[in-house]
Design a protein that fits this description.
By secondary structure, the chain is mostly helical. It has one domain. 66% of the residues lie in helices and 4% in strands. The chain is built from six helices and four strands, in the order ααααββαββα. The strands form two sheets. It has a two-stranded antiparallel sheet. Helix 2 packs antiparallel against helix 3. The termini are close together. 29% of the residues are buried.
Length: 191
Protein backbone atom coordinates (compact mmCIF):
# COMPACT_ATOMS: atom_id res chain seq x y z
CA UNK A 1 0.00 0.00 0.00
CA UNK A 2 1.32 3.42 -0.91
CA UNK A 3 1.07 6.10 1.73
CA UNK A 4 2.52 7.02 5.13
CA UNK A 5 4.21 4.20 7.05
CA UNK A 6 2.59 4.60 10.49
CA UNK A 7 -1.03 4.60 9.25
CA UNK A 8 -0.14 1.63 7.06
CA UNK A 9 1.08 -0.38 10.07
CA UNK A 10 -1.97 0.64 12.10
CA UNK A 11 -4.14 -0.59 9.24
CA UNK A 12 -2.21 -3.88 9.18
CA UNK A 13 -2.78 -4.30 12.94
CA UNK A 14 -6.50 -3.45 12.67
CA UNK A 15 -7.10 -5.86 9.79
CA UNK A 16 -5.07 -8.68 11.40
CA UNK A 17 -6.93 -8.26 14.70
CA UNK A 18 -10.26 -8.26 12.87
CA UNK A 19 -9.30 -11.37 10.90
CA UNK A 20 -8.24 -13.09 14.13
CA UNK A 21 -11.55 -12.32 15.81
CA UNK A 22 -13.40 -13.57 12.73
CA UNK A 23 -11.51 -16.87 13.07
CA UNK A 24 -12.76 -17.09 16.64
CA UNK A 25 -16.30 -16.32 15.45
CA UNK A 26 -16.10 -19.43 13.28
CA UNK A 27 -16.63 -21.44 16.47
CA UNK A 28 -20.18 -20.11 16.64
CA UNK A 29 -23.03 -22.58 16.86
CA UNK A 30 -24.85 -20.96 13.92
CA UNK A 31 -23.79 -22.29 10.50
CA UNK A 32 -24.56 -19.05 8.67
CA UNK A 33 -22.46 -17.09 11.16
CA UNK A 34 -19.55 -19.52 10.70
CA UNK A 35 -19.62 -19.12 6.92
CA UNK A 36 -19.76 -15.34 7.10
CA UNK A 37 -16.97 -15.28 9.69
CA UNK A 38 -14.76 -17.44 7.47
CA UNK A 39 -15.14 -15.09 4.51
CA UNK A 40 -14.53 -12.11 6.74
CA UNK A 41 -11.39 -13.73 8.20
CA UNK A 42 -9.97 -14.24 4.70
CA UNK A 43 -10.80 -10.61 3.90
CA UNK A 44 -9.24 -9.33 7.14
CA UNK A 45 -5.97 -11.22 6.71
CA UNK A 46 -5.81 -10.38 3.00
CA UNK A 47 -6.35 -6.70 3.77
CA UNK A 48 -3.63 -6.88 6.45
CA UNK A 49 -1.18 -8.39 3.95
CA UNK A 50 -2.09 -5.86 1.27
CA UNK A 51 -1.82 -2.92 3.70
CA UNK A 52 1.85 -3.54 4.54
CA UNK A 53 3.53 -0.21 3.68
CA UNK A 54 5.39 -0.23 0.37
CA UNK A 55 8.30 1.55 2.08
CA UNK A 56 8.80 -1.61 4.16
CA UNK A 57 8.03 -4.30 1.60
CA UNK A 58 7.23 -3.95 -2.05
CA UNK A 59 5.21 -7.03 -2.97
CA UNK A 60 6.65 -9.11 -5.80
CA UNK A 61 4.49 -9.50 -8.91
CA UNK A 62 3.59 -13.11 -8.01
CA UNK A 63 2.10 -11.91 -4.71
CA UNK A 64 -0.13 -9.42 -6.49
CA UNK A 65 -1.21 -12.19 -8.84
CA UNK A 66 -1.94 -14.31 -5.77
CA UNK A 67 -4.19 -11.55 -4.39
CA UNK A 68 -6.10 -11.49 -7.68
CA UNK A 69 -6.53 -15.28 -7.67
CA UNK A 70 -7.51 -15.55 -3.98
CA UNK A 71 -9.93 -12.64 -3.99
CA UNK A 72 -11.32 -13.55 -7.40
CA UNK A 73 -12.10 -17.00 -5.99
CA UNK A 74 -13.55 -15.42 -2.86
CA UNK A 75 -15.77 -13.22 -5.02
CA UNK A 76 -17.04 -16.27 -6.94
CA UNK A 77 -17.73 -18.14 -3.70
CA UNK A 78 -19.58 -15.14 -2.24
CA UNK A 79 -21.55 -14.77 -5.47
CA UNK A 80 -22.59 -18.41 -5.19
CA UNK A 81 -23.55 -17.89 -1.53
CA UNK A 82 -25.46 -14.70 -2.41
CA UNK A 83 -28.34 -16.87 -3.52
CA UNK A 84 -29.20 -17.22 0.18
CA UNK A 85 -28.71 -13.70 1.51
CA UNK A 86 -27.99 -10.12 0.61
CA UNK A 87 -24.97 -9.81 2.94
CA UNK A 88 -22.99 -12.04 0.61
CA UNK A 89 -23.36 -9.41 -2.11
CA UNK A 90 -21.28 -7.13 0.12
CA UNK A 91 -18.62 -9.87 0.20
CA UNK A 92 -18.70 -9.94 -3.61
CA UNK A 93 -18.14 -6.17 -3.77
CA UNK A 94 -15.41 -6.33 -1.12
CA UNK A 95 -13.58 -9.17 -2.85
CA UNK A 96 -13.80 -7.49 -6.23
CA UNK A 97 -12.51 -4.26 -4.63
CA UNK A 98 -9.50 -6.24 -3.38
CA UNK A 99 -8.92 -7.61 -6.89
CA UNK A 100 -9.16 -4.05 -8.23
CA UNK A 101 -6.64 -2.76 -5.66
CA UNK A 102 -4.22 -5.61 -6.44
CA UNK A 103 -4.44 -4.76 -10.14
CA UNK A 104 -3.94 -1.08 -9.30
CA UNK A 105 -0.87 -1.97 -7.21
CA UNK A 106 0.47 -3.91 -10.19
CA UNK A 107 -0.06 -0.86 -12.41
CA UNK A 108 1.66 1.39 -9.85
CA UNK A 109 4.58 -1.01 -9.67
CA UNK A 110 4.80 -1.09 -13.47
CA UNK A 111 5.07 2.72 -13.49
CA UNK A 112 8.61 2.13 -12.28
CA UNK A 113 11.11 4.72 -11.18
CA UNK A 114 11.20 8.09 -12.91
CA UNK A 115 14.07 10.47 -12.41
CA UNK A 116 15.40 8.76 -9.29
CA UNK A 117 12.17 8.55 -7.30
CA UNK A 118 9.19 6.29 -7.37
CA UNK A 119 6.37 7.15 -9.72
CA UNK A 120 3.37 8.65 -7.98
CA UNK A 121 0.80 8.09 -10.69
CA UNK A 122 -2.55 6.63 -9.77
CA UNK A 123 -2.83 2.96 -10.59
CA UNK A 124 -6.61 2.80 -10.56
CA UNK A 125 -9.48 4.10 -12.64
CA UNK A 126 -10.67 7.31 -10.91
CA UNK A 127 -14.38 6.69 -11.64
CA UNK A 128 -14.29 3.10 -10.34
CA UNK A 129 -12.28 4.18 -7.29
CA UNK A 130 -14.87 6.89 -6.61
CA UNK A 131 -17.77 4.46 -6.92
CA UNK A 132 -16.08 2.04 -4.52
CA UNK A 133 -15.34 4.87 -2.09
CA UNK A 134 -19.00 5.90 -2.14
CA UNK A 135 -20.16 2.31 -1.65
CA UNK A 136 -17.88 1.68 1.32
CA UNK A 137 -18.64 5.08 2.87
CA UNK A 138 -22.34 4.20 2.73
CA UNK A 139 -21.62 0.73 4.12
CA UNK A 140 -19.61 2.17 7.02
CA UNK A 141 -22.35 4.67 7.86
CA UNK A 142 -25.15 2.08 7.73
CA UNK A 143 -23.15 -0.42 9.80
CA UNK A 144 -22.28 2.27 12.32
CA UNK A 145 -25.95 3.18 12.66
CA UNK A 146 -26.82 -0.44 13.41
CA UNK A 147 -24.31 -0.36 16.27
CA UNK A 148 -26.10 2.49 18.03
CA UNK A 149 -27.73 1.52 21.34
CA UNK A 150 -31.26 0.24 20.88
CA UNK A 151 -30.79 -0.53 17.18
CA UNK A 152 -30.20 -4.27 17.67
CA UNK A 153 -32.25 -4.91 20.81
CA UNK A 154 -31.40 -7.17 23.71
CA UNK A 155 -32.52 -10.49 22.18
CA UNK A 156 -30.54 -12.71 19.79
CA UNK A 157 -32.49 -15.54 18.21
CA UNK A 158 -34.99 -15.58 21.07
CA UNK A 159 -32.22 -15.74 23.70
CA UNK A 160 -31.27 -12.76 25.90
CA UNK A 161 -28.08 -11.13 24.56
CA UNK A 162 -26.30 -11.61 27.91
CA UNK A 163 -26.66 -15.42 27.54
CA UNK A 164 -25.05 -15.58 24.06
CA UNK A 165 -21.33 -16.41 23.91
CA UNK A 166 -19.02 -13.57 22.95
CA UNK A 167 -18.11 -15.33 19.71
CA UNK A 168 -21.72 -15.21 18.48
CA UNK A 169 -22.57 -11.65 19.51
CA UNK A 170 -23.95 -9.79 16.47
CA UNK A 171 -22.71 -6.41 17.68
CA UNK A 172 -19.13 -7.72 17.67
CA UNK A 173 -19.61 -9.04 14.14
CA UNK A 174 -20.93 -5.61 13.16
CA UNK A 175 -17.92 -3.96 14.80
CA UNK A 176 -15.63 -6.22 12.74
CA UNK A 177 -17.50 -5.34 9.56
CA UNK A 178 -17.33 -1.66 10.45
CA UNK A 179 -13.57 -1.79 11.02
CA UNK A 180 -13.00 -3.65 7.75
CA UNK A 181 -15.18 -1.13 5.91
CA UNK A 182 -13.14 1.73 7.34
CA UNK A 183 -9.93 -0.10 6.42
CA UNK A 184 -11.23 -0.60 2.89
CA UNK A 185 -11.91 3.13 2.63
CA UNK A 186 -8.38 3.89 3.83
CA UNK A 187 -6.90 1.49 1.28
CA UNK A 188 -9.02 2.79 -1.58
CA UNK A 189 -7.94 6.37 -0.87
CA UNK A 190 -4.35 5.37 -1.65
CA UNK A 191 -5.21 3.88 -5.05
Amino acid sequence: MHGPVLPGWLLVALCAATGSYCLLRMRSGFEGARRAAGGEAVMGFGMAAMAVPAAFLTPPPWMLTGYVVVFGGTALRALWAARGGAHHLHHVVGSLAMVYMALAMTAQGAAGVHGGHAGHSAGGVPLLTGVLLLYFAGYVLSTGLRLLPGAAGGVIGGVPAAAVSWGARPELALACRLSMGIAMLAMLITV
